[in-house]
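Q: Got one fold?
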Amino acid sequence: MPRVNKRKSLMNDKIKYNFDVSILNTLILYTQCEFIDKSNLNRLKSLIENTDIDSYKMDLPIYNRLRILESILDSMVNRSMSNIDLIKAKLEEDFPPGVEVLEKEIPFEKNKLDVSECVNLTNSIYSKMNIINIYKEKDKLFDSFNKIDIASGFLNTNTEAIDDLKQSCSQILMTLNNKKDESGLMRSFSFTDDGSKDRLDNIVNKFKQPSNILITGIKQLNALLSPGFQAGRLYTILGGSGKFKSGTLLNIADHIRLFNKNNINMKNGLKKTILFVTLENSIEETIERLYDMYSDESSDIRSVDPEQVRETLEVEGNISFSANSMNNIDISFRYAGNLEINTAEIYAMVTDLTNRGYETICIIVDYIKRIDSAHPSNGDERVRMSYVAKELKSIAQYFQIPVITAMQLNRAGNNIIDSGMQEGKTDLARFVGSSSVGNAWDIIEDSDWVALINLELRKSTQQLYLTFKRLKIRGKKVSPVEYFNHPFVNSKNIRLAPDIDLDTSLSIISLSTDLESFNENENDAIGINDNRIGAIRDAREDKKKIKHKSADSIVKELRGVKSIY
């Protein structure tokens, strides 16, 4: 393949824009609007820093104003000045002609622009910064294209070159998204700043917005969440192998769909949806689970007509198949194979949904180990998963919605559960702590809320319960209870029983003499029957006779492991 001449690098080049005096006067006034925070000023400063100011020396009105902007932004961003007289004094030192221009030609006063004018300028500055960021990544993209050998043999798949191109594209997407204003995410605050009272009002009102808190249909889980899934936060569910992690995430999505209709602001005309990225189960398997959540105990999706499945989902599950239904929350499922996509592609998924008329109110990723990082990790899984956790947290903050995911326990955590089961111990989730997270400690550190789940069988009724044990919560702890067991609707053991509309909670707070641990794969396709349970118990009794390390001894060993808290 003929080599393509490498393009001249633009990394250090500056850009000449088609500025005029009026725009520059307005940008100078923009710096003096009290509702323009430091993050917006910083973006404007970056724009001016990437502008070839010297190329305007023959056009003094433009050149002078660019130098004025340069000095003002240095004073306000780097030196945290806000007093106009001090800013002018600094300008006199940096560029003496600038003060004269300010006093004679520009009404340099506070709040001369209204909100709509500031919003338009902010969007324009962001658009110009996008161009700069594309230019800065341009060479990497061309280099990736050049590595693809089109003229090579048919069996040459160019896998490495294509992976490199995909990485470059993902990095550009991450760069562009991270430069955007994070939906009003405040970057600085001081009580003595001008406009601090208004900013405090905005903070308080933001917490009062119903759409910033998504509740579930389980009272005790809402108490553990204190009081629900909040915007800008990362939530992680921990569980052992076969302990209903995917099922829990699907139940959470279904509960958000059902129990937040009155909490979601519908004024923007977009249909609200939950983005459910499934990397564990196929779309078909996920739909089958949804059907099992609402169908009769003896019903199987393989033995019914499509019309019956749709009717069950519509009538029992309150799922709307109408594109015109604006009052119901939808779930948008996206499937990808293991490590087939990275976190940067979630931005594209949300953008695609927006273009189709949907507003994403929550993102669920099933599960964290199966999604790749947008940053290179050089084959180190621990580094990769650490990046993924940070990137998912950034996505939550960027879109100002909750991101919920799951993580598998490490070998030590699974050993505690398995050994406890062999000994017939109960409430095994109590034994497992944050030291039992998988390959990356940063997953716990970057998560705002972490809970362990485990399946437990109530001996007296042979009913299966899902145990929740909260391991971490960032911020105020409202609920004194950090551990509870919650029942399923029926013996299919797929749908967790909602109790938010009931007078009393269905959850049980640790009946340690009446619960034993249970594996998800021990459940029959149509439920648990007495013979099956008896056989499982007989097998457990046989296992007790075999020499093995006890759960207590494993816990004692882990006590020497330092916690990250």
About this structure: The chain has two domains: 1-181+193-208, 209-544. The longest strand covers residues 463-473. Residues 25 and 105 are 9 Å apart (CA to CA). The two ends are 55 Å apart (CA to CA).
